[in-house]
Amino acid sequence: MTRIRKGPVLLLSIFIIVVISQAAMAGEWRGSGTPLYTIASGSMHGGVHVDGGHGLTYADPYTEYFDLPDNIIYARLYVPMWNYNKGDTLTVSINDNELKTREEPDYIAAWGVCCYAYDVTEVPFKEGLNVISATYENNNGAPYGIFLVTVYENESMPYTQFWIDEGNYALSKAVADGGAKEQGEALFPGDVKTETVEKADLWTVMIAGTGGEIDELWFNSKLLGKDVGRAKTGSYLDFDHFNVTDDLVGNNNTALFKRGGEQYLHPFNAVLVIEHKSGVEGDKELTVYEAQSSLMSVIPIPVVAVLAIAIIGFFLIYLKKKQERG
Amino acid sequence: MNYRSLFFVFAIILALLLPSVVYAAGSVDDIGITVTIPDRKEGVFAPDKLVASGSEEGARITFENRGVETATISATIVVPDLLPLSVPTQELSGQITQDGNTLTVSPMAITGGESAIVRIRVKPPESIPMKTAETFRITATAADGSRTEYTHKITIIPPPSWITYGTIIISLLLVAIVILAVRRFGILEMYTTIDLVTIALLAALAGVVFRWFWQTFNDLLGPFGGLLFTIPVSALMVIALHLVRKPGTAMLLFLVDQLVCMVIWGSNITVWLGWYLLEGAVVDAEVALLKGNYADTRIASMIYGMSRGFISYWLFYFLFAPTAWKICYAPWYSWLQVGLAVLGGLIGGSIGYDAARKMRSAMM
């Protein structure tokens, strides 16, 4: 009799231990992720090339072509990916150079929406056409796209300032991570001499936007667009460019992603490039900041709470049964 | 030895062969043309089907030289007007010119046994009145003037405007009917506090614990990952039916489940509530048809689990995915998933029956 009663308790304990220990290894709920922050900024005579695409297709390898300029002084590569789990791998090849196979991504949020970020400044890009391919092992997952930001020097070009922001912030109404996340901002810190600005461009990358669920994208006090996240660049992907010349402020320019009616919206990147008028001179500056990579694996509090309540409930039933049996 | 006759025969053979070699090198006879749309992982997604108002899709036009000599061709690709066209950066970027929805690719030198691939991107129309067939027309012309034409038909489905609106209307109607029925027959008053607590607890287990468990571990089982959700949900549904024993229990369970999911995981159920309730409605109808069999027999429990699995997955793959996600899964893949859901329902129903009987005997 005692053996029979101990059985379910033992089974339940094993189940909980298995669940908890597995979760610590491969738990998929990753919280709200990493708010966007500046990974690199600087200035030079030259320009910044931002390009990429093209949505979730489950193609393997996933390939994207880039038409690049010469004299690249800094390059950052991004592979946003759906459904990361421990044990997944990603191998990126740039032309004939295979980068070291990665296992853990840099940024991860919600149910495994993640991003692998690479500093590829040292990779020998060609002037003209370059091919980047991603080969991956990921059950049920795949890349959302491949994006490349290259900063290049050209003394004959205008003086240019730039900020490259990256992260992966899950804006959602889910309370599993302690409450809804309504908005996220990308700050471009520092001063800008607005009177000498010829042109300012903003590029953004967002994942999981849905058409008809109205989000908002702001640059300082200017509304750049509503329902910007609507998977227009491919499945689940929005890659946008805005001319923000008239909306610059003297310091700390900011892009603001507002979730609005979106169920989930993941801002991944914001790149601001300011081109000054001809005649403006400046030194080359390049600052690369420390990456705020985070890999968080958590069991959401509601899961623990419901499990605890259920266990208490079943325990009470068990006690009642025990009492009845005398 | 007189070799003259031998040379003569050899000369005739050479003369006969030579034109064909020249012909193969300069004509399009050996060029095979294929169009892959959408350019996604093959097998899982339905080929040659686009969903109106869906996101931009890739397409791949492959020119394969099945001969042994290098063929130099130029090609014209005419994309249906209904599909706005863009051309991404690619290997042939320098040879591609675009004029509206017509691409010219020239020249393309394709060595024997190799292929040249032109990648394009098309945006399905926002709305179309009905299922529409459209044609890609591709012409390849060789230097000698020989040409081949290839047409590739695709279907743009469905008219999401009326399906979407119809879905919303049916959803709202179903919700309205439920509310009216609840008021008219005082159904909620039939439920005791213990019933409601039981339903809330089981719904929370399904919507919070097992949804998290499934999302977390479904990769471990590959294509069978769905079983991690269908088995426990079917089991919990059968437990709810057996313990609560009131009409509408399954619907109430799934309603609370969806409300819990909305709060905890941020799921969007506003439009789809009716469809989420449908799986419960079908099970409740079956309970009535089986004359109030609240999962009192193993067979009935398995039927309820199977029905729930079939309805929910069939709705997802054949209605929800194309309508809400604008994705058409390949029929074999969809039916495999529906089959797995039915299997999960059968197993879950059986497990639920055993668990429910033990719990009921404890509670009684």
Give an overview of the whole structure.
The complex is a heterodimer of chains A (326) and B (364). Chain A has 326 residues and is α+β, with helices and mostly antiparallel strands. Chain A has one domain. Helix content of chain A is 15%, strand content 47%. The radius of gyration of chain A is 24 Å and the shape is globular. About 5% of the residues of chain A have low confidence. In chain B, α6 packs antiparallel against α7. Chain B is 52% helix and 20% strand. Chain B is of the alpha+beta class. Classes of the chains: A alpha+beta (326), B alpha+beta (364). Chains A and B meet through α1, β1, β2 and α2 of A and α4, α6 and α9 of B.
Q: What is the count of structural domains of chain A? A: 1
Q: Could you spell the SSE succession of chain A in H and E letters?
A: HEEEEEEEEEEEEEEEEEEEEH
Overall spatial form of chain B: elongated
Number of helices of chain B: 9
Strand residue percentage of chain B: 15-25%
| Percent in helix of chain B | 40-55%
* Shape, principal axes of CA atoms of chain A: globular
End-to-end separation of chain B in angstroms reads 113 Å
Decide which structural class fits the backbone of chain A: alpha+beta
Strand residue content of chain A: over 45%
Low-pLDDT sequence parts of chain A: 12-27
